Amino acid sequence: MTFRKNRARRFASTAIGHASAFAPAIFAATIAVVVVYVATNWRLERSLADERSIVAGELAIISSRLQTNLNSNVKLLQGLAAGIAVDPAMDQSAFAKLAAQILQPDSQLRSFAAAPGMVVKWVYPEKGNEKAIGLDYRKNEKQRDGAMLARNTHNVVLTGPVDLVQGGTAFVARCPIYINDGRSQIFWGLLSGIIDIPRLYQDSGLESAELEIAISTVPEPNSPKQVFLGGLETFSKQPVVASVDMMYGRWTLIAVPKGGWGQQNGIAAFEVFASLLGLCVVAPIVWVGFLTKSRQRTIEKLRLHKKKLVRARQRLEHLSLHDALTGLPNRRFVDQMISRPKRPGPKDCLILIHIDLDRFKAINDTKGHAGGDAVLQATASRLTNLAGPHEVAARIGGDEFIFASWSDTPELRANELAQQIVAALEQTLFIDGSECVVGASVGVAWEAECLDVRNLGQLLLNADLALYEAKKAGRGRAAIFTKELRSAAIQSKELADEFNNALDCDELVAFFQPQFNANTLDIAGVETLARWDHPRKGLLGPDKFLGVAESLGRSGDLDRLILQKALFELARWDSLEMRIPRVSVNISARRLAQANLLAELSELPLARGRLCFELLETISFDDLQPVLNEVIPAVKELGIEIEIDDFGTGHASIVSLLRFEPRRLKIDREIIKPIVTSQSQRRLVSSIIEIGRSQDIDIVAEGVETMEHAKILRDLGCHLLQGYALARPMTSKQLIEFCRAKDNCVTQAM
Ligand code: C2E
Ligand code: CA
Ligand code: CA
Q: What mean pLDDT comes out for the span 714-719?
């Protein structure tokens, strides 16, 4: 639906775009059409008027010529009539003579007929007109009316066209002749003049090539009979009109251009011209419309392109702020949220809960990456389910999550959330059809006051500290950040700084604890133990600084330093002839993995068997296998003995430990401690001793706190003893004293 609506909207907006781009063109085109139409009409009317006036002028010339010709013919006729009136008794020859004088060659008059008493008596010329002689007008139907009219009106009457007795048609002008006898006018007769129609027409210009002319005897004829030149239909063609006065009566002359009006007006050319002119105006506007349209299209394209870019950027932005596996916001998101907090309410404080899955690594190792991914996805969805408005769950690392919330009662909400999260993540999961429980440790921190945004960065560290605390206290718990945690953290930070300094300022000292032959109680060796001679706190044991050294990555440096000190003291004891067979040093995994270890060791001036490395069983022998495979044989090659320390506590397999063929195994003091009271513990020690014997490995017992321990261990077959019962860790100076004292006294029998 939305898609369709969008399409319709887009279509509508495109249509509006089209319309708006071409609106000026459409407007201009309309104006142009109207202007062309009006101009053409105006031009048509004007040219019609012009044409009419031209035709009217031509017709006026024609009608005046016709009038003139008729008049001159009438004049000639009247001249002849006057001659007759002077001599009414003349004969045919006298008449002919007179008529010949009057009838000029260029006249339209063709002949005369004199009819005294209305009967034609004389004709001129006689030839061809003989038939007319004897014609009695009174008896001739066609000519009687005209003849009578002339007689009665005393005027020249023009009739015609008349069918002549002698043949043909012509106009006939009849002039009545009256003779004055002194008293009255006596009608003598009629003198007729035959006017040659074609000639009259030709001379008057009626045979015009351009005009269609008609003449009627009445102004508005309605019968063809009334029209003697041209046709009746010409009268319906809006002709121009002129008239010719016929003494008695009047002719109506009309004319239209041949082919009708408006043939020669050039209106078509004008139309073409006007249209071209209109086109010249409209075309650029249309062109501009096209340009505008194409610009609009380009803009539209750019807009779409920009939209796409914005969407792509948003997608990228989303990707960069979210975790691909779980879809949760990521670390960057949390950092941004903390650096630019949007407090939902003015009194709302930020709560951050740092979550770390307890058994994720184990599941990842056993179920593979797909299993690990399933755990993370399930965790994400469980956390998301707990999130209310203004709360967000984010994945910030491998198996680490953050849950952020805003509340105006942060303590209450934080505690509630922490319990819910621990409970939710403790629920059983099904992976590959088998049940597993992951569990999580949770560290909680919230803003004490919601005022200072700068403290928000610290909040994450606080939640971190609390998480660390939760893990220390055992897994599957929530810990809440406190000021004490902070100060402990600050202290450990201080300690770290001081330890760095201590290494450089030689504040670390070596203590030595002798080891004794179980049977003879002779000193069989000494173990070197690190101490920190702290300027303010006094002498600190390794439990106070080993963790710091490890976290600073300086435990290797520590071991190197203690080794130097041990060897230095060994040389000193030798020089004092104390007969201490060997010195042991504890060695960390980091030191073992140091690239320059072997090179450094090979530089040492050492007799074989005088130095021993104690390797903690907790060093991950399995993880470090590749390094150890190379290093340990090389170390042994240099004449340095290898002893496995704290045997029985770590998780390394006995098989992998024995593969290094150590010179000794040192049983951990936690195993030794209960042997006095526990039979089973004694059996355990006994079996370790048995293993050692079978592999030709000496067994050392540490934590020998009483002579009872010493006796039992000797009886079990232990080779060496180390413990407070025999000697505490001491300085080199104290050791020298110890040895001297020992030499002086006789060893008490056990
Ligand atoms: P460790 O190697 O097992 O060292 C023996 C620890 O047991 C020493 O503690 C020693 O004081 C203590 N001890 C000796 N006899 C008795 C006894 O009868 N009863 C009891 N309860 N304890 C006894 P210390 O000196 O505090 O050392 C602790 C651990 O620190 C050592 O355990 C060793 O793992 C580590 N360490 C000491 N010095 C160094 C060093 O230079 N480098 C490295 N990497 N670790 C060292
Ligand atoms: Ca040790
Ligand atoms: Ca030990």
A: 96
